[in-house]
Each structure stands twice: as C-alpha cells, then as structure tokens.
Amino acid sequence: MNAYWAASQQSQQHPAPMLSHPQLNNQWNNSSPAQSQFMNGTNAVMNGMSNMPMNMPAFNMSLFQQQILHDALALSTPVAGADDERLLIDTLVNARARKDNYKNALNSLHGKNGHSVILWKDFYLEWKDKIDMHVSVSLKNKGIPDPLPMIKVAKKPTPASFQPEPSPPSSPEQVTKSSGRHSKTSISRSFLSSSSSSGTKLPSAKNGHRSTINSITAHAPSYNSRLPAPNAEVKIPHPPSRSPSPPTKVVAHGRGNKFTEEDREFFIRFIQWRLRCDPNLTRNDLCDQLAEKVPHHTSQSWAAHWSNNHDLPDKILAAAYEEAEGYDEDTEDESSEEVVQPSRTRNPRYYKESSVEEDGQDDQDADIGDEDDDFVLPSFDESAMGKGGDPFTDADFALTARYIASFDDFAKTSTRQRWKPWSQRYPQRSDKSWAEYYRRQERGERLHQLLISSRRTDLSRPSCSCRKNQKSGCSQGTFTETRSL
C-alpha cells in the first residue's frame, strides 16, 4: 500500500509528457468506428512488416535493378561486323519475298546478336544505299521478283521549263520596229511580253511537218484551274467594244463574297477595256477601279484574285505596256515626216477587229462636231457644286474639266496623283468618287463638247487624244492636256 502511494506521488511530481498536438489526439479519440478500424488495421500491417527480416525488401529491389542494368548493357553493343550485316540483308530479303515492309523486318531483329531494334534501324539508315543494293542483288540471284518497284514521280512544270522560240514576223514593219525596242526593267513584264509574241519549240515531227508552233499554227490550249498555266501559250481574248457591265450577282462565302463566273469574266474584260483607254494604268489603279465598279469585292480582294489568277491579266498588262512603247516610237517617227500616213498607225495584235468600231466612232465625232455650236459652256461657280451624296452638277463637270486641262500630261499620272489633291480641295467627295465620275464622263458626249468649246475660250486648250487615232481626233477619250496658247 505504501509502495502504491509512493508511486502515485512520484507520478504527480513527474507527470507524463503531453503530445504536441492535443487537437489531433482529440480528433482521433472522437473519430468514427470505421476510422478506428482502419487505423487498427494499418497498425497491424506495420507490425507484421516489422517482424519480417530487414534485408528481404532490399535484396529483391537490388536484384531487379541489376537485371535491368544487365539487359540495357547487353543490348547497347553497336551493330558492326560482317555477321550483323549479313543477318540484316537476309532479313530484308525474306521480308521482300513475303511482301512485308521494312519496319516489321527491322523490329524482328530486336535482341539478335545482342543489339536493340534502335541500333539495327540506325545501322540500316546509315548504310541504306549499300544495303538496298545487296538486297536487290540477292533477290535477283534467287530469282525472286522485286514486289516494290521504284516509282518515278513527275515534277511540276516551272516557267523555266518552257523554251520559247520567237515566231517569224508577219510584216517587215515589225522587224524594223522590234529592233529599236528597249528591254523592260521589270523581269516579270519582260518575260510575259516576250512570251506573248513567241511560240514553243517542239521535237521534230515526221513526214516533213512543221516542228514549231507560232501564232498562226498554234492550237487552242486546254485550261484547267488545277494545272499551272502555260504562260507561253496563253491567248489574249479580243477586247470588248464597249465598257462591260458590272455583275450584279452576289454570292456570300465565309466572311466575304465568292468570286463567281460573272465576276471573273468581268475582271478580264474590264482590264482590257481600261488598258485600251489608258495603257499607263497600274495594277493597283485597276484594282481600285474594279472595287468602284463592283463594290461587293474590295480593292484588296481584287488584288488577291489577280495574284491567284495572274497569268492572263499579267499578260494583258504587259501587252498594253508593250503597245504603248511601240506607239510612242511610231509617233516620233511619223512626226518627222511631212506626209501623214494613217495606215501606219500601229495597232495591237489582238485589235484586228477594231476597224469597224473606229469607223463608227469617227461618225459619232463628226455628229458631235456639227452640234457643238448649240452647246453652252457650264458655269465655273464653286457654290453650285453638288454636296457629298448628291448628284454631280454642271459646275462639278466644268470645274473638273478645267482641273484636267491644268495638267501637263494628265494621262501619265496615277489615279492618286490625279484625284487626291482634287479631293483635298473639294472634300465633299472622296478621291475615289471623283475618279469614278471622271471614268463615267470620259467617253461621254457632253465632255467631248466641253473640250471642243473650251478651245474657243481663254481658259485653256485641252485636247482629247487617243493613243490609237491621235491625228484623227478623239476616239477613245483619254486626255492629253496642253496649256493655253
């Protein structure tokens, strides 16, 4: 009894140390019976593992690691030697004989001669040409046909593959004119202009037939949008006799509008028409004018369409530039002659059917000349000009004509140089609006009458000339202005 009292007194003097997390102890004490059973089971498992020999888990892990290291070292030997090469060749020959692929054949070599499949594949790729040659020889010696013959892939033709040959001139005049012609500064334009007057040389035919194709004997090429266009054989269609009507059909596609067949046809005909009237127009000018005529496609969309289908429009543009240069040379030659020879006026190759149109235009000019006495010169009152969005007035017409006459050479200026200052002076309309108004009035009867009447005034003397009939009067409506005399 005394011993028990002494032990209790000692425990009171030295109480047992408390755990550092009393809340955790309370949590376990207040846990559910299921949690208590789980903890009891975990303690039992740990007690059982503590009774196992300490060296048993370490021994098993070490043995497994040693086995992995041994296998890795055994399969890391590089492929080399005649035996390995012979084994690889025989395996590939057997694969060819049973019409199997090389991938399965190389995978079957994994572990052979102590090499992994990666090393076998690396060895084959390194000596592929030599091994393939031995495989072909082995197949031939065994009389086994090669089931995988080599297939030749046709290369996509390039512009360099076309070898153009100049066609013989159709008249002696073209020989003299072509000798003095200067080379183009742009590579693309020079290539297109040279290809427009050339044919493609073909192999010599039998039975004495012609071995070349020129503009006379050429066959009509077949076109396919999926094939590269034969630039040397693209034929320029005849230009329209009047301004083409813009398409009205709009087909929505994605975030924009789709280029329909009517849009594509109008694209070519409009370019021909505008370049016929003004050969100095640039590609950007034409795209801007296309956007004004067909507003459901922007200027950037027309430029992208031009780039995607550039063969024919580029050739039309190059032919117009070439024709303009030839016309300038003809004008210089004819200016030194006393006798005017209208028959020597150089026409483009694709304007052979324009003689009837020119005769009809000359008749219209004669009728206008008879009626110009009844024409009254519009007023130059700026206050009478139309506002933005309103129709153009006679004052707009008169002031625009006087502005055009103020240029030294209006035809050689770009669209931006023409109408940007004019729109800044009269900001009620944009430069594109003024350019479109000029385009609509360019071939109009009122504008021609105004130019004729202006010659009798002290304002200026604008003369309307065309690059096709410069000496016979205005037939196309392209302006070439001169200062007042």
TrEMBL record:
Comp. bias (Low complexity): 1-13, 185-198
Composition bias, Acidic residues: 323-337, 356-374
UniProt feature, compositional bias: Pro residues: 237-247
Top-level taxonomic group: Eukaryota
Residue intervals passing through the bilayer: none
Region (Disordered): 1-33, 157-253, 323-374, 456-485
Biased composition, class Polar residues, residue ranges: 22-33, 210-225, 460-485
Official protein name in the record: Uncharacterized protein
Organism of derivation: Lentinula detonsa
Organism placement in taxonomy: Eukaryota, Fungi, Dikarya, Basidiomycota, Agaricomycotina
